[in-house]
Amino acid sequence: MSVIGRAHELRAVRACLLAERHALLEGPVGVGKTALARSIASELERPWVRVDGDGRYSEARLVGHFDPPQVLERGYVPDAFVAGPLVDAMRAGGLLFVNELNRMPEGVQNVLLPALDEGLVHVPHLGRVDAAPGFAVVATQNPAEFVAAGELSEALRDRFELLVLDYQPVDEEQAIVAEQARLSPSQAVIEAAVALVRSTRTDPRVRRGASVRAAIAIADLTVALDGDLVAAAGLALPTRVELHDPRGDVAGLLAELAAKKAPAR
């Protein structure tokens, strides 16, 4: 999948990796943080290892663990070690992509510090693992106001170069919908879907608006619903927007916004 637009951001991430620095991409859901990192990894021909942030994620899951039956049979031999994503990426000289790093427990975040600083990690019973040339970490985080998003420690933030992403211009969002929609919506439907989604980001009643991912869904659903953009919005948007007033009429608001943007049928 190609990255549409984002020339500045692509250049910035590429520069970080070529300078052997680690990059932290910050921005709301759906602005293309993952696509950006994957595109650069592909361009630089770096192996790609992905981890998704989770409050229940453990240090052993990130680094790796010894297989208990093999340990009982043969002891702590290297062959009994099951490498985790961090060790896999280090050994391969690849890109460790940590999605929503600020959802990780503090202990897991701290495991990354020596890998970020010195390209090494110490594993009990295994010893020191050194990163091969090319190893880097690209992490993402949603803004602090998002639900379940925490703050990274100052020590961890100091190991990253920060790139803040926002929503793209309207023409680029329309191009993304045209490329990624599955049911070949018309240009009028694409424009209406993008306009509707963008209106959720500026309406004073909406605390958190929708991303271009919602516009893709609306465009496809509009085709499947014989041009009914209002009905498509009713399916695609309720889980992707949040009102300032949690008791507000989400369905009514979305129907109102969709009716204003719907193309003539």
Keywords, separated by commas or semicolons:
265 residues; alpha/beta; Rossmann fold; 2 domains; five-stranded parallel beta sheet; two-stranded antiparallel ribbon; 12 helices; 17% strand; elongated
Structural description of this entry:
The structure is a single chain. The protein is of the alpha/beta class and about 260 residues long. The protein folds into two domains: about 5-165, 3-Layer(aba) Sandwich (Rossmann fold), CATH 3.40.50.300; about 170-260. The chain has twelve helices and eleven strands. A five-stranded parallel beta sheet has the order 2-5-8-1-9. A two-stranded antiparallel ribbon has the order 3-4. β6 and β7 form a beta hairpin. The longest helix is centred in the last third of the chain and has 16 residues, at about 185-200. It is elongated and about 70 Å long.
Q: Compute the number of structural domains.
A: 2
Strand elements, count: 11
Structural category is alpha/beta
| The CATH topology of the largest domain | Rossmann fold
CATH superfamily of the largest domain: P-loop containing nucleotide triphosphate hydrolases
The low-confidence runs, each spanning 5 or more residues with pLDDT under 50, are none
* Mass-distribution shape: elongated
- Mean pLDDT reading: 92
- CATH class of the largest domain reads Alpha Beta
Topology, please?
Layout: H1 7-18, E1 22-26, H2 33-43, E2 48-52, H3 59-63, E3 64-66, H4 68-74, E4 81-83, H5 85-92, E5 95-99, H6 106-118, E6 120-123, E7 127-130, E8 136-141, H7 154-157, E9 160-164, H8 170-180, H9 187-202, E10 206-208, H10 212-224, H11 229-236, E11 242-243, H12 250-261
Parallel strand pairs: 1-8, 1-9, 2-5, 5-8
Antiparallel strand pairs: 3-4, 6-7, 10-11
Helix pairs in contact: 1-2, 8-9, 8-10, 9-10, 9-12, 10-11, 11-12
